[in-house]
Specification:
The chain is mainly α. The protein has helices spanning 22-30, 36-66, 74-83.
Length: 85
Amino acid sequence: MRVYLNTRNSDMSHRVNILLKDENWKIFQSIPKGKRSTIINALLSDWAIRKQRGTAFRGIKNLTKTMKELPGSAEDWVRQDRDGH
């Protein structure tokens, strides 16, 4: 898993109140206090990237449904290209 963090100091920070289930609260408490914001930001960044990729994948999948099949095979196309030179 790759997580891309924006480390620019010019970004504004925001304080939020959230509700966590008991099992998530236990995990959250196990994170050192100085690292919690960094971990939450990394998780949100990862979630956003996954959401963008999912949207892109669905878009590509929908496009492929509208594409017409081309006659022949990849092998035929390579041979035609090679013989045409």
